[in-house]
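Lay summary. Proteins are chains of building blocks that fold into shapes, and those shapes determine what they do. In this project we predict the shape from the chain. Here is one chain we studied, written as its sequence of building blocks.
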Amino acid sequence: MKRRSILKGLTLAPLVIGASSIKSIAATASVNENNLLNELGVRTFINAAGTLTYMSGSLMHPEVVKTIKDSSTHFCMMDELQDKVGENIAAMVHSEAATVTSGAFSAMTLGLAGILTGNDLKKVEQLPHLAGTGMKSEVICQKSHDERYNHAFLNTGCTIVTVETLEELEKAINEKTAMLHFLNIAADKGKINHADWLAVGKKYKIPVSIDIAADVPPVSNIWKFNDMGFDLVFLSGGKAIRGPQSAGLLMGRKNIIEAARLSAPPRGFNVGRAHKVNKEEILGMYVALKKYIATDHEKEWSQWESEINFIENEVKNIKGISTKIVIPTLGNITPNLIINWNPTHINLTGKDLREALRNGNPSIEAGFAGLPLYPNQAGSESIDPTIAATLKGENRVTITVWMLQQGEYKIVGKKLKEAFNNALV
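And here is the predicted shape, written in a compact code that computers can read:
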């Protein structure tokens, strides 16, 4: 994918606040000996791996942190706050309505709940017990789109029905069908594209949702799928947007969002009571979204390129090493540096290298291909196939720079070079 084609649309932001700095530093690169993490003995690190939840996602912008601090000294009515923030967010993302949730997973559960119950409070209290209620009970998605996060839909009491072709999709639709769901990061794995999936939903008058939780950047994805006509769009609030990691966005049709909020706090006796998002997070999410949309994404991309080129130049001439910069076609579209090496020249495995970086000073987390990504866990956040295709054997590592703080790219480059030179045969 050409850089220009990626950037096309990045500057078509519906809101311009002013020039923003590329790197807002949420914490200094050096460890503060007095900080609580250090006191507790919790390791902090330079993040060269990306916005992975098990690595605490991303760092909030200083403006977001200030908003959280400032708003913590005042009371307000939660519904009024969600009303006002939702109206402003909806205008930014081109949707009829929006609400801040406790993450994209929460948005999925609440969005489906809104479809199932409408404004019927009796039905709201009955979820997830659907039997005998007259509520629909099935969500259809493509087989390749049925991944672990769809468990959010099971929380409502619904079941997942999978299909592979348009013909199978139309045959699967029945009186129990509540929603048709699309997973954007797997768009190239299924046989049915966005437009055809939407067309079937429109034909049968069934709401259509899309999970774009980790699909920013590009910034245009924030409103692209609302413009396409999806009835519900689910987005993480942390990651690239750098709002609270525990926040997310539910965007879409006004009637569905209004109904979804009946299953959300501050109301109780509902399926979403545990999905609390506090006033500080709601305001922090709003500020983060405004800042992200207003960012100079051309300048941001140029800095990423400069930093990843620096790291590549630090290691590419070491004997036995080959490098490649890859831009994923789906998910977080940012430059990724792939480093492969010949074990006959460098006595090091990918696991050895990652552990050496992790145990170094400062500690650095690097990325890698293959499943699972989560240490000692069955689940994973899978790598883009564009990247995976470039990786051969176990002697490889992936490096991203978009979560690095100011100047950290130099540290990453230096430490990689040292590790490889120390392992030369």
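What the prediction tells us: The first helix runs from residue 3 to 7.
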